[in-house]
Design goal:
One of its GO terms (biological process) is riboflavin biosynthetic process. InterPro entries: DHFR-like_dom_sf (IPR024072), RibDG_C (IPR002734), Riboflavin_Biosynth_HTPR (IPR050765). Residues 3-180 form the Bacterial bifunctional deaminase-reductase C-terminal domain. This protein is of the alpha/beta class. It has a single domain (4-185), classed as Dihydrofolate Reductase, subunit A, CATH 3.40.430. It contains 5 helices and 10 strands. It has helices spanning 31-39, 46-49, 68-71, 107-116, 128-134, and strands spanning 4-11, 15-17, 61-67, 85-89, 100-103, 121-126, 140-146, 154-155, 166-173, 179-185. The mean pLDDT is 95.
Length: 186
C-alpha cells in the first residue's frame, strides 16, 4: 500500500508560510537545497527540474496533493508538478489544466482510494487545513525546519484534529541551520 507523506518546510514556531501565504523568509540557498534535490527530486517544480539537472523517473512520489491556497500561491504555475499526478482539494476551484484534478468531495475517501492503488507514494504538499483534515491518513512527516521565527502565519496543522503520535526516524542538520526531520506514525 502506498504511503501519504507530508513533506513541507516549516519555521521553528510551526508555520509553513507567512500570513499572506508567502515563503520569502525561508532559505532557498545552501547545502540543504542540494540535499533536497538529491533526496527528494520529485518535490521540485517541473519547470525547475531540467535547469537543476533533475532527469529520469520519479524516485519517491508519483502523486501530489495540495490545498487550493498552496496550488494558487502568488506567482504559481497552472501545472506546477506536471511530472506527478496532481490533485487540488477545493470546493471553489474549477478552472485548472487537464492534468490537475480538483477534489471537491470527501478528501479522506480520495486519499484512501489513492493509497490503495499501485505506484509510488503520495506527497502532501500543503497546506495546514488540509494536513489537519488528513492527519489520520498521514504515514510519514518530513519537516524541513528553517531557523526562522515568524510569530504568525499558516500553521503546519490548522484545525481541530485528534492527537497523533509520530516516532523520529532520521534527522539531518545543515550548515544553513535548516534541519530535516523524518517521522513515521507510531
Amino acid at each position: 500500500m502506498r504511503k501519504l507523506t507530508y513533506l513541507v518546510a516549516t519555521t521553528l514556531d510551526g508555520f509553513i508560510a507567512a500570513p499572506d501565504g508567502g515563503f520569502g523568509d525561508f532559505l532557498f540557498e545552501g547545502d540543504h537545497m542540494a540535499a533536497l534535490i538529491e533526496q527528494q527530486p520529485d518535490t521540485v517544480p517541473t519547470q525547475m527540474r531540467e535547469p537543476l539537472g533533475i532527469t529520469g523517473p520519479n524516485k519517491s512520489f508519483d502523486t501530489v496533493l495540495m490545498g487550493r491556497s498552496t496550488y494558487q500561491v502568488p506567482g504559481g504555475l497552472p501545472s506546477p508538478y506536471a511530472h506527478l499526478r496532481q490533485y487540488v482539494v477545493s470546493s471553489t476551484l474549477s478552472d485548472t489544466p487537464a492534468d490537475v484534478e480538483v477534489v471537491s468531495g470527501d478528501v479522506l475517501a480520495k486519499v484512501r482510494e489513492l493509497k490503495a492503488e499501485d505506484g509510488l507514494d503520495i506527497w502532501l504538499c500543503g497546506g495546514g487545513k488540509l494536513a489537519a483534515a488528513l492527519l489520520p491518513e498521514i504515514d510519514r512527516l518530513v519537516l524541513k525546519v528553517h531557523p526562522v521565527v515568524l510569530g504568525r502565519g499558516i500553521p503546519l496543522f490548522d484545525g481541530e484534529f485528534p492527537a497523533a503520535r509520530f516516532a523520529l526516524v532520521e534527522t539531518q542538520a545543515f550548515s544553513t541551520g535548516v534541519v530535516f526531520s523524518t517521522f513515521t506514525k507510531s
